[in-house]
Automatic annotation (TrEMBL):
Domain of life: Bacteria
Protein name (Swiss-Prot/TrEMBL): Helix-turn-helix domain-containing protein
Signal sequence extent: none
Domain HTH cro/C1-type: 29-82
Gene3D superfamilies to which the protein is assigned, alphabetical: lambda repressor-like DNA-binding domains (1.10.260.40)
GO molecular function: DNA binding
Species: Streptomyces chromofuscus
InterPro entries reported in the protein's UniProt record: Cro/C1-type_HTH, DUF5753, Lambda_DNA-bd_dom_sf
Amino acid sequence: MDEAVDEAGWDVEPGDEIEPVVQAVGRLVKICREAAGLRASELGETMGYGEDMVRKIERGVRIPRPEFLERADRLLNAQGHLRAFMEDMRRARYPQKVRRLAEMESRAAEMLLYSNHNIHGLLQTPEYAKALFETSLPALPPDQVERETAARMARKSIFERHPAPVLSFVQEQVTLERPIGGKMVLRRQLERLLEVGQLRHVSLQVMPTDREDHAGMLGLIEVLKFTDGTAIGRSDGAFNGRPVSNPRDLRVLEMRYGMIRAQALTPRESLAFVEHALGRL
C-alpha cells in the first residue's frame, strides 16, 4: 500500500505558480466524490490509494497523476470534468524551474550549450539522467528522482520541433568517459549521442582533455536565442551565475562559446571520438 500511495502524485512546491490550479482540481475531486456518495477512504480503497493521499489531493497539496484523474473520472461518473485537467496536471508535475526552462527552450531558434561535468540534459537517456540524480547529496527521495527524470525527458521534445532550432553542443571529453550509472548506462548514452549527432540541425563537438588552450575553464555556458532577436544566457563563471539578457553581457558568453567551439574537435572528428569511446566499453 505504501508504494501505491507514493504513486498517486507529487507534492506541490511552496509558492509554485501552478498551486491555484492544483487546488482547484483538488476541490473538484472532492465535489465529485461527495456527489457520488463516497468517503475519502472508500475512494482511496477502490483506486488502491490511502485515505491520507486522497485528502492531500483534495486539499491541493498533492499533484494528482493524470492516470488518477482518468480513473477517478470513471469511478465518480464525473462526465469528463476530471479528465479535462489531465494535461494541466501532466505539466504541473514538473518542477517550476524546469517548466520555465522548457518554455524558453520551446521558443528558442538557436541554442549554444557547453557542458563540462556531465552530458547535457537535452542529450541524456532516461537511465543516465536517473543515475545522475541519484548521485545528489543529500540523497533525493525516490519520487523526486522520478519526477526530475521525467521532467528532463519531456524537454527532449525540442528535437521534434518544426521548424527545428539550431542546436550546438560542446561536451568535455571526461563527460564521455565517466561511467555514471555503470558501463551499460554509459554505452547507451554514447549511442544516443551518435544518434543525435546525425541530425542536420544539431552540431555535437568534443573538447579533448589534452587541449592546452581552453576558453571554458570558468564552467558551463548556455545561450538561448529567440526569433524576435532577443536572447538569454548564463554561465557558472560569469555574472555570478545569474541569467543575463542584455547584449553586452551576451557578447561575452558568445565570445567564450565561439572560442570553445574553435578549440574543440570538429563535429565529424567528435562523432569519430564518440565511436572510439563506445568501442572501448
